[in-house]
Amino acid sequence: MIRDLLTGLQITAKYIFRRPITFEYPEEKPIIPPRWRGRIVLTSDPDGEERCVACYLCQAVCPVQCIDLQATHRPDGRRVAAKFDINFARCIFCGFCEEACPTYAIQLTPDFEMSATERSSLLYHKEDLQISGTGKHPEYSFWKVSGVAIGGKDKGQGLNEEPPTNYRSNMP
Ligand code: SF4
Ligand code: SF4
Fold it and tell me: Which domains does the chain have, with CATH numbers?
């Protein structure tokens, strides 16, 4: 028994003068890796327009079905989400939605400070998720590279896009 006590004291003495490895959170913030999968945001194009085209892929891939969205079309032809909700009380931060998104709209961030005392406050709406920044893809703009005609851009006017072929000219 004395031997066990001495072993315990020996371990205590070994660590007593070392720097503590614990953080005095929240006064002292931990260093979070940039690829940490935390709070989800909906990013914007470099021109400030929303990136999400309401394709439902993130909703389809989500393993816990915590994304709920509804598509609509704007008068200028852009397809956007009229409604985009994420229930963070169910989200497991797997990142599948970010992987599936074809426009880099939905992105996970290193922000982990989302605790709440009421479950209902973990239901985030589009206005809570949308940010004006571009996130991890500062140059990308889906509407500039897509072949979809929208207000101010006709078919064939996208980046690296050829004008549409006149199929009648191919007829014999
Ligand atoms: S991180 Fe995973 S669980 Fe959370 S919304 Fe995205 S797909 Fe769903
Ligand atoms: S966030 Fe991405 S995957 Fe989800 S609906 Fe919008 S464009 Fe599609």
Answer: 30-136 (3.30.70.3270)
